[in-house]
Amino acid sequence: xxxxxxxxQNPFDLDATVSSGQFFRWRIQGxxxxxxxxxxxxxxxxxxxxxxYHTISGNMNDAEIRRFFGLxxxxxxxxxxxxxxxxxxxxxxxxxxxxxxxxxxxxTVSFICSMxxxxxxxxxxxxxxAKRFGTVIQTPNGKIFRLPTPTQxxxxxxxxxxxxxxxxxxxxxxxxxRNTPDFGSLQSMDYSEAKTVLLSVKGIGEKVxxxxxxxxxxxxxAFPVDTWIKKALQTWIFPGKTGSPAQLxxxxxxxxxxxxxxxxxxxxxxxxxxL
DNA sequence: CTCCAGGAGTATC
DNA sequence: GATACTCATGGA
Length: 275
Known about the structure:
Number of strands: 7
Structural class: alpha+beta
Distance between the termini: 40 Å
Helix content: 40-55%
Strand order of the largest sheet: 1-5-4-3-2
Strand content: 5-15%
């Protein structure tokens, strides 16, 4: 297996990046990870200032790797602008954790599956959807399955969606397949405009919309507030503050500014590993 | 058995 | 705009 190399000029923590709950299509393989992203299936491992990867299926190249792992985000500059001592300590702990730029459609399916669930189950649900309804790809490592495209998903009956074990989320996936946003246009819109479009889809609320914007559409100011982040904010950033998730999200966006999503991801990862 | 989970829609006030 | 109830399933 011949590995290509990307030289890292900024801090990177591959382990924290893939395991921080923003992306579900990965698994441990040897010293690194196997990753699925659209039609691509690749292996990646990290050693100091070098990221090595090998495309098993698809067409990943250095530029795609840089884009996917957010390697051009200047983390030190982003975090330097925040004066919260607690956030600084979290940054020192996970320095190099980056926001992945995953596929918007796959991200939407994933985070609709995520509501009122948990990471192991979300991962399992996504795999089941891919295995039953997605395109099979033969690779040297065996068969892998793409997530179904909107067209493929629209051919699946509501009963068959329920049968995958996604529960009440089945009806939202059913609707999403028939009312898929034009994700391409959302990247160039401003945050609130793009969010309004996402919120028009049944099953996409405040939190899921912010996840889609942050994890796949390069809107780094998005600040998804779930139960974990709510606890994290109330414990570490705004002690004792009450309010709805939407109110806390607005509060956090105002406090952290244009790259608020990065603060969110570090706080989420820290909350999930310590609380 | 009951309770709750990376929420969101709907009804009701 | 706030609150209560509901939605499926699975794990504790």
